[in-house]
Design brief:
Helices cover 58% and strands 23% of the residues. Strand 2 and strand 3 form a beta hairpin. By secondary structure, it is an alpha+beta fold. It has two domains: 77 residues; 98 residues, 2-Layer Sandwich (Alpha-Beta Plaits).
Length: 183
């Protein structure tokens, strides 16, 4: 192999220096800069999370008030009883009381399968003429609120006599149920 000319050796030295600087940039500088950038992104994400947490903490009193108000409203929608049979009895008693308020004859209630957390029943009554609307209003306006899923009315006596007579009414009702904690 022949010796390099001074110009060639300077060119090789410059190329080696450029290669060394490139390698130094690739091995040391780029990871260092990308590490700083990654940590800056992590800091920004943590600062955003911290700000969101501060807003949540500041909202705790308002959320507590809302939860208390909603817990109070839950009594409007949920029947609280010790267990499912007690809730079914409470629902029957409530339907019998509604029937009594309008002078209807309560003939009984049959339990129906319901969605989880719900109690459903089919109620049979004999309602005096003109008292069906007040009966429905009495059932709907009492708390906890009952859902009337079906209503069947037959007026066989009125058909036979040709005059206003009592109505045979069957209601399918449902209400949300919550088992009260035993003490």
């Amino acid at each position: 192999m022949r010796a390099l000319a001074p110009r060639e050796s300077r060119l090789v030295a410059v190329l080696l220096l450029i290669a060394a600087l490139g390698l130094f940039d690739l091995v040391v500088v780029d990871p260092l800069i990308s590490g700083f950038a990654a940590r800056a992104q992590q800091r920004e994400a943590l600062q955003a999370r911290y700000a969101a947490n501060e807003r949540t903490i500041a909202a705790i009193p308002r959320l507590s008030r809302q939860a208390a108000a909603r817990a109070h409203q839950a009594d409007l929608y949920t029947l609280n009883a010790a267990d499912m049979p007690a809730a079914a009895d409470a629902l029957r008693d409530r339907m019998q009381a509604a029937a009594n308020t309008v002078g209807a004859e309560f003939h009984g209630a049959e339990d129906l399968p319901g969605a989880p957390g719900m109690i459903a029943a089919r109620v049979a009554m004999r309602v005096p003429a003109g008292k069906l609307t007040p009966l429905i209003a009495a059932i709907e306006n009492a708390t906890p609120l009952v859902t009337i899923k079906g209503l069947s009315v037959s007026a066989d006596d009125a058909l036979l006599s040709g005059a206003a007579a009592s109505l045979d009414v069957k209601l399918e009702i449902a209400i949300a149920f919550h088992a009260a904690a035993r003490r």
